[in-house]
Amino acid sequence: MSRDRMNDLELRAYGEIARALAMVAFSIADGEPATEATSLASHFPNAPRPIFRQSVFKYLGRDLWRLRILQPLDDTGKNYAYHFTFACDVKEADRVAQQNWEHGPSLLELLETFIFHFENYGKEWHDFSSEIYVPFGRNGRLAPVLDALASISYVEKTAEGYVWLDVEPVMRVLESLRSAYPTLWASDGEHSP
């Protein structure tokens, strides 16, 4: 895949990844505790709700902002913001991402954000796995994005679920996590109990 152009299958996968990420961002924003939601409302009284607050989810906010799915409420002027409102209905995020992909991350970068967030947010509920050769996605919650990834050979759909075929993005995300959180992994690279 060229950064300058995507074919129709890549563009479909790109949009499905973006929609899945937008839905995660929306559920995070919509699930803010009442005290935090009230505080955000007082700081941004005219902003539509819910407000997505970027904290540890910086790549999620960054990528969705670049795709014009999120709109910053407090742009620092340094290509960074902490609070966002949704610029589109999350159900339309795939279409918005497809229209704005040239402004957004590459397909590989967006896929890495997807892997990072589903590995760390709602992994069990979505039946997500970053483990190689371990089937996942059996409950169908991620079927649209996983089917799109299967069409471009990142995963394979099997009778047991989906399995990773292209392990490079998975390994890059896991290595990044190991570097950032070394105490979570044993010295031989195995996940600690």
Secondary-structure class: mainly alpha
Give the biggest sheet: 3 strands, antiparallel
Coarse shape:
globular
Helicity range: 40-55%
| Rg, nearest Å | 17 Å
State the end-to-end distance: 38 Å
Oligomerization state: single chain
Give the count of structural domains: 1
Q: Give the strand line-up of the largest sheet.
A: 1-3-2
Mean pLDDT: 83
By DSSP (H or I, 4+ residues per run), the number of helices equals 8
Poorly predicted runs: 187-193
Helix/strand order: HHEHEEHHHHEEH
Structure description:
With 193 residues, this protein is mainly α. It has one domain. The protein has eight helices and five strands, in the order H-H-E-H-E-E-H-H-H-H-E-E-H. Strands 1-3-2 form a three-stranded antiparallel β-sheet, with helices on both faces. A two-stranded antiparallel sheet has the order 4-5. Helix 1 (8-30) crosses helix 4. The protein is globular, with a radius of gyration of 17 Å. It starts with 7 loop residues before the first helix and ends in a 13-residue tail after the last helix. The model is unreliable at 187-193 (pLDDT under 50).
List the helices and strands and how they pair.
Layout: H1 8-30, H2 34-43, E1 51-53, H3 58-66, E2 70-72, E3 83-86, H4 93-100, H5 107-120, H6 123-126, H7 143-151, E4 155-158, E5 161-164, H8 168-180
Antiparallel strand pairs: 1-3, 2-3, 4-5
Helix pairs in contact: 1-4, 1-5, 1-7, 5-8
